[in-house]
Amino acid sequence: GMIYVNGIPVVVFEFKTAIQENCTIHNAYVQLTTRYKRDIPELFKYNAFCVISDGVNNKAGSFFAPYEFYYAWRRISGLSKDVDGIDSMFTLIQGMLHQNRLRDIIQNFIVFEVESGKLIKKITRYQQFRAVHKTVNKIKTGKSKKEKGGVIWHTQGSGKSISMCCYAGKILQQPAMHNPTLLIVTDRNDLDGQLFETFSNAQDLLKQTPVQANNRDELRR
User: Fold this and answer.
1) What are residue 153's phi and psi, to 5 degrees?
2) How much of the chain exceeds pLDDT 70, in percent?
3) Residue 49 burial by CB count (10 A; 0-12/13-18/19+): exposed, middle or buried?
């Protein structure tokens, strides 16, 4: 299956049956990234992301991502907790594929990073999407510095840099923010370099070229 926007195929689905034990969600991934990539590569020129399912497990991810980076969209507004299994198809469709959210993901939540010399396309996970939106809303509606502030807790490898990057791109587009200047502060030189590289690779998302300050004078300028 496919989702078209103005005739452009932006989402591709691959479903496998749930009644055959030897037909898994991983088979759906292999079908997309091996056979379809070989036989119909033109289909993925404008692809935003792909959805794979075996009727029970339902995940989405970048066409270029390894299988382990396909994730379920486990919650939508109104649900008190994350869901899994068959229910995750409902949350994926109502959440990730809702027309407003789909446009938002395409515009603000797809980033590119260079890993081991290779350009990698990455799609937000639902918790990153939710965190960015809650943060932007807090900034826009908070009446004081305390109300505008807060903490987003990440575990190692959960996508801190991408969350920051997507937040930056989103906040820069808010008319109420009057074209803000964003300052990214880190506590280690190696982390500073990594974050600068992440933001530099996201110039299309940020609509500007980030600048790294190496000393106090550069920071003042």
Assistant:
1) -95, 125
2) 96
3) buried
